[in-house]
Amino acid sequence: MKNKSIKLLGLAVIVAFFSCRGNQKKNDLDAQIKSYVQSAKTLKDTARGFTIDIPEGWQRVEKEANGVRFTFLMGPKANGFQVNLNILKDNMKGMSFDEYIDYNLKHMGGVEPVNLKQTDITINGIKSKVIKYNAVVQNLDLQLGSYVIPANDGSAYIITTTELAADKPGFQDVFDKAVNSFKVN
Fold it and tell me: Which of 39, 35, 76, 32 is nearest to 58 (CA)?
């Protein structure tokens, strides 16, 4: 496979650092999480064929890197890091879904995951995978989750969630609500 292939998990860590840093006291974290779980608006991306609920107050940011378009949902700043969720659609290049997952796990772009756990899940009737792990990047211990959802056109949607490991289970309810709202159109 060409090196240009999206490095599913490694890229998720790198992309997470488009996030802004700020100062936020730990005491405020629970109140922020509660307010973000309560209501959402729906983002419909007709070009890439999906919808997802965005927690209220989160900002949508579109970025492109190496010809790949990312949708970022930027949450609040918590303990000096802006939690986020990003979505990309990647061509599986003729691989089966399992081959695609294995390939990306072997080619993480220099990222060394810790506590990697892979689980089968179902998201809105689609058999998918979630890969959760920790990684230290720029001296920050991050907790990441990459939800990989196959599409019928030979591609896969990758939804990656990123927060500080110290905040766990911090934003997991927010991430779960958003990911479970994801629909392929």
Answer: 76
Tell me which residue range forms the domain holding 17: 8-184
Residues 6 or more apart from 25 whose CB is under 8 A from it? none
Element (H, E) at 68: strand 68-78
Rounded to whole angstroms, the Cα distance separating 114 from 107 reads: 15
Residue 102 lies in a domain: yes
Query: Considering the domain boundaries, does residue 170 fall inside one?
Result: yes
- Check whether 167 has a pLDDT greater than 50: yes
Residue 154 in domain = yes
pLDDT digits (tens, 9 = 90+) for 8-34: 444 444 444 434 334 444 445 555 544
What CATH number does the domain containing 160 carry? 3.40.1000.10
The dihedral over CA atoms of 113, 83, 120, 6, expressed in degrees to the nearest 10, equals -60
Distances (CA, A) of 169 to 56, 67, 105: 19, 34, 24
Flag whether 25 is in a domain. Answer: yes
Mean per-residue pLDDT for 117-144? Answer: 93
CB atoms within 10 A of CB 4: 10
Domain count, the chain: 1
Residue listed under structure tokens 């879904």: 97
